[in-house]
Structure formats: C-alpha cells, structure tokens
Design goal:
The protein has about 300 residues and is an alpha/beta fold. Helices cover about 40% and strands about 15% of the residues. Bound molecules: nicotinamide-adenine-dinucleotide.
C-alpha cells in the first residue's frame, strides 16, 4: 500500500486541535474568559449520543467549557426554542450546537434559524449559508470545512480543475460546492436524480463523495491522479464483523487516486476539529479580539 497517498485526517485533526488549544489559552489569558460550547441532544438516538459524547470530550480536551443539555424525545418545539433562546442570551456560551436529526414533531429549520448566527458553530443558519455563498466571512459547516482544509493542504488553488461532489445535502454537498468554488475549481453536484454519475466521476480531478451508500464509487470510476475525499460513514456487516466503510471503495480507488481519505480516520475527525475551530473563531469575535486567520491552521 502506498502510504503517501493516504490523507491522514486523524493526524491533521490532532495538529489542528493542538493549535486550537494554543490559541484558546492565549484568548483565556488575555480576556479571562473561557470559550463555551453548548450541545443540545434531544432523545436517545444511539449514533447521536456517541457523536455528542465525542464532541464534549474533545471540547474539554482543548480547554473550553462544554455545556450539555439533554431533552426528552417528546419535548415540545416550544420548550426547545426556549432553551435555544436562553443559550443565545448566555454570555458563558459562545457556540450552540443542536444535534440532528431532531424528532419528527420538531421543525429543524425553525430551531436552527433561532440560534444566533454568531453562535451558530454548525454554520446551518440561513444568514451563515447566505454569507458563505456570497464569499463573506461566516461560520462554515464543519464537515465541508474539514474537507476544504484537507484539500488546501494538498492543493490550495484548484484553478482549471474539475470537482465533482456526489450529494446535495445542506450539511455537506451544497456548502462543499461553495468552498470548492472559492478554491477556483469548476464544480458539478451530482445527486439521486443525476444520470451517468460514473461518467461524471471519471472526469473529476477532485471527487467528494457524500451519499450514504456503502462503497458506491468503484475503482475504475476514478480518473488517474484524482484526489478523493470520502465523507461517507456507513456501518456494514463484513465477514461476520460490523465495520465502517465510506461511500467509495477504498481499496479499489487507492489505485488511481493521487490522494485519498480513509474511513475511518479521514474526514470524520476533521469534523469535530472544525467544530472546535468554529467555536474558537467566534469566541475571538465575541470577546472583541482581533480575528485569527484560517491560514494559521493550515501550516
Ligand atoms: P443526506 O442523506 O442528507 O444526503 C445524501 C445525498 O446523496 C442526497 O443529496 C442525495 O441526493 C444523494 N444520493 C442519494 N442516493 C444517491 C445515488 N444513488 N446517487 C447519487 N446521489 C445520491 O446525507 P448527508 O448528511 O449529506 O451525509 C452523506 C454521508 O456522509 C453519510 O454517509 C453520512 O453518514 C456522512 N457524513 C459524515 C460526516 C463526517 O463527519 N464524516 C458528517 C456528515 C455526514
């Protein structure tokens, strides 16, 4: 196996979290205030519980305050909105994350749009979405931000390169398209109604797969020397064991790719690092300190 091809998200995310701790400590020393991240979990979804536990652990590790709120599955939308408003007005809270998915009786869009844009560390508020597409400073959704940091470390300018994203979700596919455009790539988004995805992927210099279909992308779809970013996290049964696989067939795609993210250990750890990065960036802003450049985290 050619280790030079592997984009080690675990290693890069560790480096980023170290830098977050460094800049966080500087901020705490200067202002006497500690960045706080509030995480709201509704219900008992097992995957969500694991994500929230990880986020809280990593938040504490970098020296920030984590504030956890667990609400019953049957909580009313009104009660959840009241909590979000309380957190909006709490000066000990700089970032608010409401773990998705929410139970069906709650309007997720309404909840996300109630979070103050400056505390919206997931970058899902309409104001942040609009700013991202307008090329203005904003809080950017964590998973695509993580993918763009990995890409910038390999190739900061994608002028003349063709990027194909599979998936058009608000969480990954759409913001990823905006970030790739800002890196000067020519971007195509494929989705469930797209025809001839295989042909599209074969033309891509950069592929971002965010579909949720285990190993959908096959080795012979990958253009020679393409960069492959695999966002997918799929739990499957293989040879009697539960394993995690991405949306691309990693072993097959390794052949043609110049660089590729593994699953696990690729995009996943970058997502949490970027949540902390967003919390740090917005804390600088909320504590009226000069902003830190994102480039500080690319070295
Ligand atoms: P989603 O279900 O919201 O969106 C999936 C997208 O794939 C949709 O836009 C749909 O149009 C498209 N799609 C579905 N079937 C398709 C097909 N046959 N051909 C082409 N496109 C198709 O999912 P999401 O939230 O964007 O997540 C996508 C994947 O990324 C999932 O595996 C999820 O677990 C993973 N994910 C990982 C992280 C991370 O931190 N690594 C974060 C978020 C999501």
């Amino acid at each position: 196996m050619d280790n030079n091809k592997i984009i080690d998200g675990k290693f890069i995310s560790n480096q980023i979290r170290e830098k977050i701790k460094f800049f966080g400590n500087k901020l705490i020393e200067k202002t006497g205030k500690k960045p706080g991240l509030a995480v709201v979990l509704v219900g008992e979804n097992p995957a969500s519980r694991v994500y929230v536990k990880n986020k809280i652990e990593k938040t504490n590790e970098v020296g920030f305050n984590s504030i956890e709120h667990r609400l019953d599955e049957n909580v009313s939308e009104e009660k959840l909105l009241d909590l979000v408003n309380l957190l909006n007005n709490d000066s000990n809270v700089q970032g608010i994350l409401v773990q998705l998915p929410l139970p069906k009786h709650i309007d997720s869009d309404k909840v996300l749009d109630t979070i103050l844009p400056v505390k919206d560390v997931d970058g899902f508020h309409a104001e942040n979405v609009g700013k991202l597409w307008s090329g203005l400073n904003s809080l950017v959704p964590c998973t695509p931000l993580g993918c763009s940091i990995l890409l910038k470390k390999i190739s900061p300018d994608l002028s003349g390169k063709k990027a194909v994203i599979i998936g058009r979700s608000n969480i990954v596919g759409k913001p990823m398209a905006s970030l790739l455009l800002s890196m000067n790539a020519t971007v195509t988004i494929a989705h469930s109604r797209t025809k001839n995805i295989e042909q599209l992927v074969k033309s891509a210099d950069v592929l971002v797969a965010a579909v949720g279909i285990p190993e959908m992308v096959k080795g012979d779809w990958i253009k020679e020397n393409a960069i492959v970013i695999d966002v997918g996290i799929n739990r499957i049964e293989r040879e009697g064991k539960r394993v995690l696989v991405g949306d691309v067939d990693y072993e097959e795609c390794l052949n043609n790719a110049s660089k590729i993210t593994p699953v696990p250990g690729g995009v996943g750890p970058m997502t949490i690092a970027c949540l902390l990065l967003n919390t740090l960036l917005t804390s600088y802003l909320q504590f009226n300190e000069d902003p830190i450049e994102l480039s500080s985290f690319l070295e």
